[in-house]
Each structure stands twice: as C-alpha cells, then as structure tokens.
Amino acid sequence: MQHLYEMDVRVPMRDGVALAANVWHPAEGEAPTLLVRLPYGKDMMGTASEIMPNILALLGAGYALVMQDCRGTNRSEGEFVPHAADRADGEDTVAWVADQPWSDGTVGMYGASYLGMVQWEAAATGAPALKAIAPTFTSIDNYEAPWYSPGGALSLSLVTSWSAMMYAAHAQRCLAAGEDTASQLQQLGRAALFPEPLNDVLPTADVPVLAAYGKWWDDWMAHPSHDRYWDAMELTPELKNVTVPALNIGGWYDLYIGQTLRTYTTTRQKAGSAQAREGQRLIIGPWDHTSASGVYRDRSFGPLAGARMAGMTDLHVKFFDRWLRGDTTALDGVAPVKIFVMGIDQWRDEQEWPLPDTRWTDFHLTSTGPANTADGGGTLTIHPPSDAGHETYLYDPRRPVPSAGGACMPTTPGFCGPVDQRTVAAREDVLCFASPVLDEAVEVTGPVSLTLYVSSSAVDTDFTAKLVDVFPDGKAINLCDGILRTRYRGGLAAEELMVPGTVHEIAIDMAGTSNVFLPGHRIRVDVSSSNFPRYDRNTNTGGVIAREGEEQMIPAINHIHHGPNHSSRLVLPIIDRKHRS
C-alpha cells in the first residue's frame, strides 16, 4: 500500500482549539488507523524504539498512522495542563480520524507512558470508532503512578525532572512565539538536563526554578492526599465505559509496574463489555521506563530479554489485526499473559494473572540479634516465631537512605533497575531479614506485600520495603519495593497521625515480580524509612511535608515488632513448578 504524508494537519476540537497532527494515509482507498497522542513533540518520533512498534512495519501492514501533539505542546494550540483536556481531546480526535475519507472508520491507539495515559482517557469516553488500545508503561490512577505512589509518598525525582523538562519545552514554545522567556528557558533547560540538584532543595514546594513557573507544580504540591483533585483524574470508576480490548505492556523495573498489573486485573473485572474484559492481554519484561534491553550493570537477563527479541512490533500488528480488521485468527497461539521469569531468565506463557496455582505464603520477620545491616541477625522464616521482639533504627531525614535501583525513572546511571544493594544494606538504618540458604529453587511470581507492626517516636514517618535476591557470592539484587507514609495507613484520602510509642499495623504494597530464587540463594526483605530521591523525605513532624525546610525536620526512632502478637510478615506468591536454570 502506498501512503501519502501530510505534516501539521489541523484537527479541530470541540472548543475551537486546533491540534497539530502528522498523518500517513493511503494514496487510494481506506485503511484502519493507528493514533498516537503525545506531549513531547510528534516530529521527534523515530521509526522505531526498543519497546514501541516499528512505524514502517505498521505502515507496511496496511495501517494509516496519525501522530498528534497534545494540547498546548509543540505545534498544537491551547495550554498544556497534564491530563486536563486529554479525555475530550482524545474523543474528538478519534471521531475526526474515523470521519476522514482515507479511514475505514476503525481506530486503534498505542504508545508508552503519557502516550498510554491518553489511550485510557480516550477509551473511558466510549468513543465508538476506537476499537483497541495498546498502552505501555502507564497508569489509570495518576496519583498512585506516576506523580505520588500507592503509599502516599511523592515520587520526587520523577516530578522534578519531568516538570523541568515540560516547563522548558513551554518556555521554548513561548520564546518562539515572541515572548521574553529566554532567561526562564536557560534556567529550565539547565534543570531539565541536570535535575538531581532540584531534589535537594527544601522546602520541596519552593524549588525555585519550578515554583517560579507555577502551573501544575503548585497544584501537585498542594494536594499530597488522594483528594478530589486526583479523583477527577482517576479512571478506575470510568472503566464501566471502556468497551475495547487492551494490550497492556509493562516492565518489572518500570515506575508504572504496580498500575500496569492492577489495571489489567481491574479491567478484566470492571470493563464495560465482555469483549473488553476478555480481550485484555498482558506482557511484562525485565525492563525499566526507558530501556527494554534487559541488560544492566549489575544484572543481565540474557539474550532473549530484550523487547526486540520478544517481537513487540509483530505482537502489535497481530493485536490490531484482530480488533481493527476483525481477523479472528490473528492472535491464535498467542497466550493472553506473557511474563519474563527472572532468575531462570526465560519467557513464559500464562493464561491468567495472578497465576491460578499461586500459593500465598507468609515469611515471618524475626531475629537472632539486631537486624541492622545485611550482616545483622534478621531472619525470614515460614514458621511463626514463638518469641516476641523488636528491631530499632534511627531515621534521620537529613541523612536519608539513597535510592539504589528499583522501578523508577533513570535520571542518573544506576538509579533504576536491578542494582547491587550491598552498599545500602551496610547502613545501620536498614534492617535486613533473610531466609536460610535455599536447597531448592523457589519461584515468586505475583503481587508482593509486607505487613509490619510498627511504632515510632514520631507522629508520622515512612516505612520502606525491598525484596532482594541474595546470590551465593553476596551480590544482592533488588526485585520490587514499596513505601508507606504512615499517615495514610488507613487510606490515601485521609490522614491519621500515629500515637508515639503505640504499635500500629501497616501494609506496604510492593507491586509485584516474577523471579526464581535459585539453590544457594537467599530471599531477603530490607526495611527502612527512606528511599531518596526516588521519594521525598518524611520530615516526621506530621505537618505539610512539601512546605517544611530542613530546620523543621526531626529524627524518628522507629521500631519493627515481631512475634506471636505482632506477626510482621512478607507475603509472597509462591509457584510450585519444576525449574531448570
């Protein structure tokens, strides 16, 4: 099929604003169309990436393609406010595409991160021409991911770096329009290129280069709870309007992994049609938000781990052929769930998520001595401990535990993905609870959580949890993690401070993983009270954290209680299958 290319086609929205789109459409006849909406500049989209389908392959498969700048970005009119107009603009754009003479009336959408959010926004409108979406690394609850977290802590390093990048783009846009924003552009450009110093500024709400620009930064700082501001953006209540199948793609080390897994399971239950519920698909690789190679400094997952080897372009074509072209055989032989199992470093097809043969198992926290550091006496056991005890450490927000890997935005080398934890685990403010050396392989695949019985000298503090695979040579590779701000232990919408010295039960959502702990390895969970700058530091005062400076910070003496009456435990999804490494 021969395509014609049109640049900066004006697409009218319901309020008169025109959005710019680049369009590849058939020279003759009609075709199904794939739509990509993005705030980062449609003209920068290349022909391929590790995780995204190859554009030339999509055109070669007979699809038309529309790439559109979101409102207020690049060449589109209007003002950019994250998420504010994406629902209506997505609905209007889908209708416009379907009405074009080169369109056969069917539309699909694909893309990662913000490009995935706008897909769910459009699908939630019930746009009749939209037949399928393929969201990658994304969320339907913008509080839980990416801007805050399931435990209520601000995703600091992401919020600062992303805001600096988007503010810089806006300043550039204003300068091109003749406004005097050169000085702002210089400051914001420097911040976007080197965002790390922004994370150290206190109070967080007053980071000069960002606070001076205002816009959404002020709103996000003013709404630390999951209140009506965030409720208006959450799409979970709108899933009843979603009638299209979705190809959900995620990474074990992607900052959206918890939302990717939760969106899949929730949509399977609550979507507005049987086709949408049964047409959900899930693929998870050993990837982070910007790299889908499966190769990292401290851990390589082998030659098959990369997205290209996983055939992501071919999978997209098959998925859209099924739902836009009506080819009922297109997905024959393609399992509804495909996951990369770390440890044995193999892809595996599954029929459901969580896996139906999951055996939820409590690994109890206990100790033979102080659990501080990896060399301490913290242990994990499947047998409930008979003796009561507690572990103690000092959390000083002026000396936070540094981020070392995990499911976050890679703003610096080694900041995300699998990273050896030995340096971090040598700190006195990190508690480590490890199993005995394993005689047999143990597979952990599914959602992971940690229940703790805690007390503190403070009225509010944070608790972090990290699941770690300890190798025979001592290397300790993180798998998944989580954080809970204790004021949100009863829910993200309302704050409830602790009573100092009183024991409280809390649960930390650690998202999920798939890993086989091989013989000779140990299962370990690390507990502390900070993971900075991935998350903001809790000042321990019970006040508005984003408005407090270093002088307001107070140290907290934190305790983890364990024993018969305080069953602190790591809950793991054990899969009993034979493995060959």
Q: What do you see in this structure?
A:
Helices cover 20% and strands 29% of the residues. It contains twelve helices and 21 strands. The chain has helices spanning 55-60, 86-98, 114-123, 143-147, 156-176, 182-193, 208-211, 216-222, 228-231, 257-270, 274-278, 312-324, and strands at residues 3-12, 18-26, 31-38, 64-69, 103-112, 130-136, 247-253, 281-288, 337-341, 346-350, 358-367, 378-381, 389-395, 431-434, 442-456, 462-470, 476-485, 504-517, 522-528, 556-562, 569-575. Strands 11, 12, 13, 15, 18, 20 and 21 form a seven-stranded antiparallel β-sheet that branches. It has a six-stranded mixed β-sheet with strand order 1-2-4-3-5-6, with helices on both faces. The chain has a four-stranded mixed β-sheet with strand order 7-8-9-10. α1 links the parallel β3 and β4 (64-69). α2 crosses α3 and α5 packs antiparallel against α6. The mean pLDDT is 96.
